[in-house]
Design goal:
The complex is a heterodimer of chains A (110) and B (116). In chain A, 0% of the residues lie in helices and 45% in strands. Chain A is mainly β and 110 residues long. In chain A, strand 5 (32-38) and strand 6 form a beta hairpin. The termini of chain B are far apart. The chains are: A mainly beta (110), B mainly beta (116). At the A-B interface, strand 6 and strand 10 of A face strand 5 and strand 10 of B.
Amino acid sequence: AQRVTQPEKLLSVFKGAPVELKCNYSYSGSPELFWYVQYSRQRLQLLLRHISRESIKGFTADLNKGETSFHLKKPFAQEEDSAMYYCALAHNNAGNMLTFGGGTRLMVKP
Amino acid sequence: DTEVTQTPKHLVMGMTNKKSLKCEQHMGHRAMYWYKQKAKKPPELMFVYSYEKLSINESVPSRFSPECPNSSLLNLHLHALQPEDSALYLCASSQEVTGLPTDTQYFGPGTRLTVL
């Protein structure tokens, strides 16, 4: 069965510090992984996806199939990065279903 | 229009009421989704519509009845709900359901439902 695990419910860092939000998955097929973000009083939105291999707002994430991980990283956190972050796995052989991890709340302190 | 809209923003209903949630998108997307999100939990998929046909029902109780009258509209009809059904109901849409890579899902702001 597919599963997405985000081990930290809350991550608190100071502005300018590096940040890493952990995501591990289990899936028997070829995974497609995403990071979605929800800023305060805003809708859930896509931050990045592994196939794009882009950096969005300074965030990057690399799919590590050996470790079944898709950790989200940013070298220097900003206060505006404070939000709820969800890692998600697409069941691409099951109608574009997304399974979300439990989420990590990132707080960036001044 | 590049957004998914949902109405109403908030809804309070009794256990005997019948109400409907509405979702609309004008991005030409052919896949639409309903998710349920309880407080401090991730979204959980309820239904998927592909080309206006129900393609996935994640074992949702029959007191939730989805409807897709056309490619831009998605409704969720509610009847005889329980207090534990209180949650944020999110609608999303994407270009397609099938094919790789998986299309990005665009989420609406949600309807916050309280069942008394």
